[in-house]
Amino acid sequence: MSLTGTGELVAAACDAGRGVGAFNVITVEHAEGIVAGGELAGAPVILQISQNAVRYHDGRVEPLAAACARLAETAGVPVALHLDHVDDLDLLHRAADAGFGSVMYDASRLGYADNVAATRSAADWAHANGLWLEAELGEVGGKDGVHSPTARTKPAEAAEYVSATGVDALAVAVGSSHAMTVKAARLDIDLVGEIRAAVPVPLVLHGSSGVLDEDLRQAVAAGLTKVNVGTQLNVAFTAAVRDALADPGLTDPRKYLRPARDGVAAAVAGILRTISGG
Ligand code: G3H
Ligand code: ZN
């Protein structure tokens, strides 16, 4: 299969009242595990590389993006490629040439007016360059290590923001927080429904690792579409590595990376079954 557009996958899921999983890629093994998880569940996946992961690769996004794009070609399910949580304009402007079909431009730390101005300009650039653009209103906590699931997106402001910026999807603050290693966050399902009714574009949940499965299911039923997951995959990846390295004689990386990749695939399949409805 060839690489699919994020917009296409999100629109199809939104129309069908399903969720679509977007999973953070740090290494090639993450990408392989995520695609394998999609194949296990028989559901499409969005591979997303965050600006932080690009920093880990010393600013070189192109090699990992190219590997993801080549993986999509041999995948048994549709795969899209998304650049996540970008606030560096130089990186944003490299997205199309690097093979991404979509970007999340993150101006959520700014006040409302500055967020609108920066995001409008990013959306104009993205659309002129054939990219689908997601943005965030009402900062989802945890990006700086501080868990704060208390932020909330206001429905009327969200509607005004989408119209003023021209974004294709909106990330909302409804109770989740980034980088949670246990499922303890409860979502404001009524608020999801209110934002859904007020806003004409698909909604995105960040920090989904910390959300209880039942809340994820209900949020999708109430109108959330793109479900972003990162930490939960790293919990599975690292547990498998730690377990394998209990053998002090082990030196071949394949002996610990294979179980890590399998752990990611199992986690992805589980999440996809939770959000796929039916
Ligand atoms: O944008 C990526 C997601 O929001 C990942 O959040 O690591 O808490 O699952 P998470
Ligand atoms: Zn996020």
From TrEMBL:
InterPro entries named among the record's database cross-references: Aldolase_TIM, Class_II_FBP_aldolase, FBA_II
Q: Which cofactor does it need?
A: Zn(2+)
> What would be one Pfam family of this protein?
F_bP_aldolase
Q: What is this protein called?
A: Class II fructose-bisphosphate aldolase family protein
